[in-house]
Amino acid sequence: MTDESLASKYARLCGILREMKSVLLAFSGGVDSSLLLKVASDILGTDRLLTVTALSATTPRQELIDASDLAARLDVPHVQFASGEMDLPEFVNNSADRCYVCKSSRFADMVKLAEERGFDFVADGTNSDDHADYRPGMRAVRELGIRSPLSEANLTKQDIRLLSRDLGLLTWNKPSYACLASRIPYGMPITVEKLRHVDECEEFIRSLSTTVQVRVRHHGDTARIEIDPAELHQLIESSVRRSVIDYFKKSGFRYVAVDLEGYQMGSMNRVLDQEGEELG
Prior knowledge:
By secondary structure, the protein is of the alpha/beta class. The chain has 11 helices and 7 strands. It has helices at 4-20, 31-44, 61-73, 89-92, 98-117, 137-143, 149-152, 157-166, 192-208, 232-235, 238-250, and strands at residues 23-26, 49-55, 78-82, 121-123, 214-219, 222-227, 255-258. Strands 3-2-1-4 form a 4-stranded parallel beta sheet, with helices on both faces. A 3-stranded mixed beta sheet has the order 5-6-7, covered by helices on one side. Strand 5 and strand 6 form a beta hairpin. Helix 9 packs antiparallel against helix 11.
């Protein structure tokens, strides 16, 4: 770590974790929470750290696999629990605050588990860049007293990737997966079937191309594919295009579209105004 600013942020993160003493970590297996897990295990040891992963249809299957694998490699205790947001009408109806509803439910369960097991804090992998997007789940984080050490240390996504590489984590260049519910436009009901379809279709595209970022947005009978603009040419090559069309139609889509703007983080939030209200 030759960058002084990055080294300072890393030192700040270590200090925050030492001050926390013991942590129950909400662990998705993604880039951010994987770095936090690695640093927390180095600072706190395995006796004062517990990782918890929510099992849900909203979580990409590969994320669950990655979470289990990394926790096992670091020899950190890992608990998986069934998350209940798909039983909540406020969530499945898919209003603009669905993330708040989900996070409130999940983190309330984690707070209870932390109290039962004697952990001082519950922490998540929110980074400083996350505050720039519409993320109503952060309100639940504040209300329930969840700590976000990466954000507290002012670590950006790029910082986290660089630190992950320095620390030997294979996740340093892992693509962002995000909650599968983010693939479904606000106002359209969230179903297990829709979530499964987008997860399977995204994995299929990854198996055919070198793209690192892919989103399959579920617009009813139409799938809208977002990938890195530099990789668009791969997707429209005749053999790949035909394979994608065939696979997606077997999954239940009638139409398959490619978004020429490419992958855009939070693209489904364009229907929201600055106050986070739905525009329709």
